[in-house]
Amino acid sequence: MVERMSSSWKIGAPLALKDALRTIRFASRRGRRFSRDVAPSVVPQPIDGFIASAMTFVDVVATRVEREATRLIRSGIGSTLELPDLRIDTSPPERAVKADQFAEAAYRGLTTALELLHADGALVSESAARAAYEAVTEQPVEGSERWAALLLCEMLHRRVIWGVSLTPAARGQERMLARLALFSLMIWLLSSRGAGEAQVALEASIALALGLRDELAAIGDDPERIEGLLMEFRHHV
Amino acid sequence: MSESADRPPSVIHLPDAGEPLRRAIRRMRWFRRCFRDHIDEMTAQTGIIYELDEEALAHVFVTWLRRVEAQRPEDPALRRAYFDFSGALLLCEMLRTPPVRVARLPDGADRSAPEIYWPEGFACTVFCLNVRAAVMAQEYGEAASVAGEIHDIRYWWTFLENVRTDSARAIGFYDILVGNEPDWCFPTLFRGRLAIAASARRPELSA
To answer: What is the pTM of this model?
Structure first.
């Protein structure tokens, strides 16, 4: 039954469904982590045996939910694990890619970037990335860096990345991490690179974002200053 | 300055860039790979285990690139001199924000060997010399040489002491190694070193 449903989902699968499944997976991962790492230390001693067995039950259920959600996302709706080699180097920039292509590249790029930035967990919304793309593309924009800067601010505003959790050493940097990941994505999209260099260029884009960390924190959501940084560094990825 | 000159120590084969090296070094992806390979090679040659600080390396790259772009001369005749200056600036930034630190020295390490006395400084200096040598070979068909001071522990004592006071002094120490006249007064200004080079070339006037 699931298999038949899967084949029909591949044709025009709604992003909302993908995001819903990813949200379920994200929530069950968080739940598992809580039951495994946090709960045992906060539950009072006399009832910890009962709580422990309840948590084990939660863990088993959450593991199954997570596994099933992952299976559906990967096999059911044709989502790939590959990083698409997408570039925005044409003029006008809004014609470079279609909204779906952008949303998928944003999802892959941001999840990869967040991993490399040592996020302990985060949820990236592909449909919010698509909506941001459509909002920015409604009006013609002069220059690909300007367009990328506006898109970055729109994605921040729409909270394309949320639920970032960090290792204890990095706590308090959650918003900054989203900013770094988004800047990495945009400069990666603008970068010139050879065939097969998508991954290494993304890693270099993240390094550039880290090198500009203080400046990115200081400029906030100012699209003009973000555009300036993108212009300055897009050829140095 | 010693008259003896050597090949740069620890010459490594730089990763294939697919474009001129002078351009590739200004790309983060090649710069990172090149530096990592270099540190691996240093470990293989010296037994020193280094720990790489990726964020510091990224910061070095960004700061160095801006300083290089800020003083880039228009005149193509100055390109070679500017390349030397860029290498010196890179070393200066690396010593200001070290992208490596020593995790472990080899057992029985000889503290009078420069690479053991100041492992971070030595590794960064040799990296800059290696990139210079590779670019000189590619752009000008020249085999770069390095002054004999590279093996002199007294040079490294003074180098470290000076850099602790002011990282910009690394530029003068780099110049000694590549055979340029150091500008100790305004080391971070490209125009200043041009004037020094010109006066060094001018013949003495007899009375």
So the answer is: 0.82
